[in-house]
Each structure stands twice: as structure tokens, then as C-alpha cells.
Amino acid sequence: MFTLEARATQSAYASWLSPLLALALTAITGAMIFLAMGKAPGVALYIYFVEPLTSWSGLSEVAVKAGPLILIGMGLSLGFRAGVWNIGAEGQFIAGALLGSAPAVYFFESTNPLILPCMMLLGILGGMAWAAMPALLKTRFNANEILVSLMLVYVAELLLVHLVQGPWRNPQGWGFPGTRMFPDAALLPTFFPGYRVHLGTLIAVLIPFVAWFVLTRTRFGFQVRVFGSAPLAARHAGIGSTQMVWATLLVGGGLAGLAGVLEAASTIGQLMPKISPGYGFTAIIVAFLGRLHPVGVLLAGATIAVTYIGGESAQISAGLPKAVTGLFQGIILFYLLAFDLLTRYRLTRVSARGNAA
Amino acid sequence: MTELLIASIMTMMTAATPLVFAATGELVAERSGVLNLGVEGMMLTGAVFGFAAVTLTGEPLIGLAAAIVMGALASMIFGVLTLSLLSNQVATGLALTIFGTGLSALVGLDYVGKTIEQIRAIHLPILTDLPIVGRLLFGHDPLVYVSIALLGATHWFLKHTRWGMILRAVGDSDQSAHAIGYPVIAIRYAAVAFGGAMAGLGGAYLSLVYTPLWAENMTAGRGWIALALVVFASWRPSRVLLGAVLFGGITILQLNAQAAGLGIPASFMSMLPYIATIVVLVLISRDSTRIRLNAPACLGKPFRAER
Question: How many CB atoms lie within 10 A of CB B290?
């Protein structure tokens, strides 16, 4: 017989072990799913988890996909640490892409190099504005930020559809929904000819280090950590929950908005009715898989990106449906949450006749 | 004019019914102290398995049974994680929604574009043919009546039965309930399973009656709206119906306005249910004392028997 015994402090060792265990078990579960679907599990797993890493173009694609996941996941992890459940990052991503793309849509012949920094700034503001709504309604009216931020995802999606079908539609686009292609000045520079990895990817890699610095070396970072682990102590130390809700939502929204405009100004190069394969939701998994830690988020973003790219090539080469990727993401999170038990509790053996004590 | 009004009310009920199912189930889970944010995922699971079962067998009852069973099974993943392994309920609920979305998309691949025999409205001789009230009272599809009956039964169960009172006690004070000797975890498992079954049924209503077809992500946020409805209802079953009908009304208003061509872009009209949800949440939550008084005291908190 085993019983659970609460640990005095969370085990750091178990905390980093559980994502690895979760990934390993997801791979095993994946193999069984492939088997059930009548596919060779070894081949399918190779396509999903290894093949994207075996070529330069695969690595470049993984980096491009990881960018938004890292940016959004980083912002979300700050909020989750403080117990602020912003799950509407998908909407903030879209809002950032919308506002950030406005200069490229209205000045479609611009060659001014300042247009890009201007777009990035607007993208951040767009995401912040979208996140400000749940922050305001939470702090002012006590409305649940989970539900408000999520409802706003649908509003943002519909707003995007409206703009690209209506006022922002490309007049030379044969009636297809979508804006004009952005001018070259409004596109992020790429680093290597032939590969899509771009400036936005670099920004995404750098942000976690900035966040790490902020978390460990600044007053604000300290407040976030205290607020998440000991809300009562935080209140005594004068850290208000209102200011924490605002701060984490604005930072999270800003980073999601930045991710949105970076995506629009790079791989897509225009606005379309659908600009995100669910980055905002997948980033929730990235944040948890990365243990809400900046470096962890970086690694987790890259890992999840591998399965995205693997999922795409599996669709083409092995005829495996893309939906499998979404299923995997859910399973990873399930396993992770199950193993988290071990960070907080210790399994101890109890003698058959009763309590050891 | 009367005809249009009757038709509108009839459609309003069909729009409200999936919300009644899902919100009633979630209400019971929350009254036992468990916050399951996986409603959207469980609805999608119910929708796809219900549709698949009807496509394969042609039997609507088998479809509904499949939806109930699969919804409950999906909720048990959440149950094991949060109740036995003490994981965070918010995170686990989100995981369930992500999982359910992926699973339903995968299972549903073979069923996109397939058609089935819709579950039809009932027709009682004489009664349904009565002017005006005939159809309003006796002309809905059977599941509308089932949803209202289940809602009434839930109200009665929670308020007037011994086990209903125990369930509420578990949600309001798990440690005391445990100390008296009630099986806190078992009761929560049962409540979560009921929530899953009802969400599955709500999803199946969408794919078997409302549309009737399968499309990826077809719930379009209704699971989340159901969660908001529970808050709106202040955790009381009697007010779930009012909230659901209100949202059904907004859906119909939006559809009618689009058809009437008021010049408001369709996308903006489609935003209405989501914006209405936010507005309602704000109006209800504004009074934080009332929320505190009505919400189950142990909502969202993990329970572990100390001895």
C-alpha cells in the first residue's frame, strides 16, 4: 500500500522531471493511437517528434512556429504564477495583429523603414487593449477573467473576419477575403535566404531572458512571485490584487499582441480570416509544460512547435489527420498535471496492518 | 405576425436547450465544490460520438446514449486528475477542453458532410393542433422536454433529497462533511460524471437536432456560455432556464436581424451572444457579496482527507 505524504517544499527535481515523463508517456500513448488507426507507430512517431529536427528547413520552421508560442506562453506564465487566469490570449493575439497591421493596410505602398517599429508598437497596444477589458471588468466589477477573456476571443475572431471581408479587403483580390499583401518595408527581415526564420523569432527567443531578469531582479518580479505563492503575505506586504491583475493581464496581452503582429508581418504577410492555428490556446500548454519558468517556456515552446511541424508533415507524408496534434497537446497536459502530484507529495509505503505511525 | 412570433419562440427553445443541459450538469458539479472548465470539450465529445453513433446505427436513442457515456467518460479523466491526483481544477479543465477539441476533430473526420435523420418535433393529436398554445406547449422536439424535466429533477434533488443536501454540504464545507463521515471524493466523482453526461447530451443536441450535422468546433463557445450561465443563475437550478432562454433569445434576435438585413454587418450580429455573456457576467458579479453568499464555499479547492 502506498500513501501520499505532503512535502514541506515543492520538489525542484520532480518539478523538472514531470514534463519529461509527460512527454515520454505522450509518445507511448501516441504510438498506441497510431496503432489503433492502423499506422506503423514507429514511423509515425519519427515523423512527429524527430523528423522536423533533421533538416535545416525543418529547424527553421520549428523556430518560426515556436516564436508565437514562446511569446504568448511567457506572458501567460506570469499571470498563472500570480493566479490570474487569462485564457483569451488567442483574442489578444488577433487584436494585436489587427491594430498592428493597420499601417501596412492603409499605407500599402510605404517604403518608410519606420513603419515596422510603428506596427510592432501598435500590435503590443492592440493586445494590451484586448486584455485591458477582462482586467477592468475583473478589478472593477469582479467579473471572472477566465470567461470574459475567452468570450473576447470570439469577438476578436469575428472582428477580423469583418475587416478582411469588408473595409480592409484587397480591392484587387477577386473578392477573396483578405487584405492586400503588406509592402516590403512592413515585412520582418529574414536571416538566411531560403529559410523563413525571421526577426520575430529572434525577439521571441530573447524575451524569456528579459522576463527571467524581471522576475528575479526587479521589484515587480518579486511581487509576482510572492503574490502567486502567498497571496496573504503579499497583501500584508502591500501588493494589491488589483494592480497584479492589471499588470499581468497587460503584460500577457501585450506579448500576445506582439506575437500577433509579428506573425502577420512575417510568414503570412497579410491579414486573412484565420491567422492563428490556435497559438493562444496551445500557449497555455507551453506555459505549464515550461513550469511557468522563462527558460522552461522557451524549451516547451520549441518542443510543442516540433509537434506542430511534425503534425503538418505527417498529414502530407503519412496521411495522418492534423487533428492528432490537438489531441496530443491535450494528452501532454493531462500527464503533466498527473505527475505534478509528485512535486507536492511524496509516495510513502505504509505497512499492511495500518499506519506506520 | 403571430406565425413569425411562434416560430421565433420555437427556435429560441432549440437554441436554449443545449445550454440548459450543459449548465444543469455543471451546476451540480459546482455545487459539490468542483469547477470543471472542460464543458466545451465534453460537449464536443458528446456531439461527435452522438453523431457518429446515429450515422452508424440510424438510432437516435443510441446516439444520445453514446453522447452521455462519452461525455461522462471524458469527465472522468478530469475527475481522476483533480479528485484523486489533486491537480489544479482550472488547469485540468482547460486541458479537458483542449483534449476534447482535438479528440472530436479526429473522430469527426469521417463524418464531416454526412447527413442524418433529424430528431423531429413531437406531434400530439388535438393538443398540438390547438391554436397558438398548441405548438408552443406540445410542438417541440422531445429533448426540449427532457432538458426541462432534468432541470426540474435536479432542483428537486438538490433541495429536497437527503443526498442532494449531502452534495451541497460537500461543496460548502468538505472537511466537515468528511468529519461527519460522508464520502466527499465519491460524491464529487458522481457530480462530475453527471456534469459530463449532461454536457455530452447538450453537445449531442447540437449535432442531432439543432444543426443536424457534425462540424469541427461546432459548439462555438456554448460550453463556456454554459459556465457563465451557472454564475448567472447564482448556482440555483430555477434560474438556469431563464438564463438559457435569454441566450436563446439573443441568438434568434441575431439570426432574425441578419435575415431582415438591417445593414449591420453579419459579424457584428454574431458577436452578440458573446458580448451579452460578458454584460450579464458583469451585472451579476458586480455585487460581490451576493456571489460570495451563493457560490459553493469550497468551489475549485482540492480536497484531501487529513486522516
Answer: 12
User: Is A203 within 8 Å of A64 (Cβ atoms)?
Assistant: no
The secondary structure of residue A190, as a DSSP letter, is B
Q: What is the DSSP string of B119-185?
A: PPPP--TTTTTSTTHHHHHH-S-HHHHHHHHHHHHHHHHHHHSHHHHHHHHHHH-HHHHHHHT--HH
Class of domain A40-319: mainly alpha
Nearest to A155 among B87, B91, B275 (CB): B275
Q: Supply φ then ψ for residue A127, to 5 degrees.
A: -65, -40
- Give B147: exposed, middle or buried? Use CB within 10 Å, 0-12, 13-18, 19+: buried
Strand A2-6 to strand A345-349: parallel, antiparallel, or no bridges (unpaired)?
Answer: antiparallel
**The domain defined by B2-116+125-294 carries CATH number 1.10.287:** no
Do B30 and B188 touch, CB atoms closer than 8 A? no
Residue A327 and residue B265: Cβ atoms within 8 Å? no
| Contact list, A328 vs chain B (CB under 8 Å) | 102
* ipTM for this model: 0.90
Give Cα A42 to chain centroid, integer Å.
29
pLDDT (tens digit, 9 = 90+) per residue, B137-189? 888 889 999 999 999 999 999 999 999 999 999 999 999 999 999 999 999 99
Structure confidence by residue, pLDDT tens digits, A160-178: 999 999 889 988 888 788 8
Minimal C-alpha gap between A191 and chain B (Å): 34
CA torsion angle A332 A337 A342 A343 (round to 10): 110
Residue with cell string 507536492 = A344
